[in-house]
Each structure stands twice: as C-alpha cells, then as structure tokens.
Hints:
alpha+beta, Fumarylacetoacetate hydrolase, domain 2, 2 domains, five-stranded mixed β-sheet, 7 helices, Fumarylacetoacetase_C_sf, Fumarylacetoacetase-like_C, metal-binding, 2-keto-4-pentenoate hydratase/2-oxohepta-3-ene-1,7-dioic acid hydratase (Catechol pathway), FAH
Amino acid sequence: MRFRVGTSEAGxxxxxxxxxxxxxxxxLSGAVGADLMGLVRGDVDVASLSxxxxxxxxxxxxxxxxxxxxxxxxxxxxxxxxxxxxxxxGGYEVPVYPALFLRCQTSLMAAGEPMVRPSCSERLDxxxxxxxxxxxxxxxxxxxxxxxxxxxYTIFNDGSVRDYQRKTHQWTPGKNFxxxxxIGPDVVTPDELPEGAVGLKIESRVGxxxxxxxxxxxMLWSVARTIATVSEYSTLEPGDMIAMGTPPxxxxxxTPPRWLRPGETVEAEIxxxxxxxxxxxxxxxxxxxxxxx
Length: 293
C-alpha cells in the first residue's frame, strides 16, 4: 500500500494512494487519525475499511498537499556514513560502526515545503536518503527479525549546512537548521518493494542536473542491520524514523562546491517510492515575505 498524509478536497489526514487517485481514510474512520500513527500502532486495519474505500469519493493523488507522515516522531535517527564512495569523498575512513546522529522536530518539514537556506551560511547541501518508519518497537532486535519491525519506507533529504557541520566533531548544528529536512510525500509498505528496500535507484537533481545517482544495494549497513544496531542502545518505538545515509555526489565534495541556491527546486527520488521535491528559499527572503503578510 501507498499512503500520503496531507490535505485534499476529500479532507485532511491519511490518504490511500490508488494509482493516480487517492481516498481520504481519515474521513472514513476516526481511528485512522490525522497522520500515520493510527495505522502504525494498529488502531485500525485498512482491510477492514475496504467496503468504505470502494464507495468513497476519490481525488487526484497529485492534488493532495503533503504533510509530515508522522507529525511528531519520537526519534529521528540518521546514518551519516553508509555508502563507501560518499565516505571517501568526505575524506573519512570506512567506519566499523555506523556514524549516528539525531534530527530534531524543527528541522523537519513535509515534501513540497521550502528548504530554508539560513542567513548565516550559503553552504546548504543536499543528501537524498531512504527513510524507514518503524511499525513495531523493541529493544535488542535480532537482525534476522528486524524487517518485521518496519511499517514502511519514504524519502528524506538530509539538508546539511556544511560549515556548521564541520565546526565541531559533533554534527548536530549543521544537521538541525530549521526547515532543512523534507520527508515524503509517500510512505510505501514493505510488500510493495524488494526485501529491505535493496536494489532501488536513488537519485537527487536540480532540473536536468543530476547531483547524485546510485542504488540502495550500495549501503554498508542494511535496513535490518541498522535496526538491530540502533536497538542495542535505544528502545525503538512505533513511529520512530531512521534515515539510511546518502550516496556520493554531495555538493561539498564537488569542485567547485555545489550549494543549493534560492530559486532552485531540488528533487530527491527513490525508485518505487517517489519524488520529494523542495523549493529553496533564503531565510531573509522568507522573513520579509512573512513580515509583509
């Protein structure tokens, strides 16, 4: 199944995407809720709504204005180094343990919303990533059981302000500027993709300019191995998200560096999942617009 949380003529909340059309599930059952947490927790089974879905009004899927799939995820865990060629282009040694960091809520936004280049830096970079949404929580999850804990997969663009990322050994500042991490728009359940989302083309671009292009088969730590590793130290909970790292081709590694510029639209695409498109705006321009309103 494919879900898109957002607003359409049919209502606000969780939409089931059926080809080019969508049905607002939140309008069919209050148990669905405003985001995917109701389905993640198992408050309602989509199969139980099949009759209502068949009778429901449909809207164009493209007309659903996206919102975050999970409005307030408990944890957003990110892998910093998970593709060998990206590790090398950044000047790092291939790690024996994944480089992990956390994203805060204010750094996240829905697909389609502007990525904000901060006024203090022009070095806003792009990082297309596969993102995992945890369905069943747990601690010390065995790798061989880990994929049964996945609710679905979506797309993440780990927008990074590189000079702030490099100010310290901890990457927190550069990875947590407001409105730099778009997620979505669609969440696809595991049965729609290869096991562990392996072998999917993953790409970022601005217009016809291809910035990154690789396959998820190149990941050092698979989805299952990553879930097992994270759950060694932290109890995973339903609705938690894990971003699986980015392939080579990031802007800071190019000569000259290729930063995202206001007026551009960056697209992050993963085969079988979709496209997460984000216009780039300067913080100072956004502030002027908001003040005028």
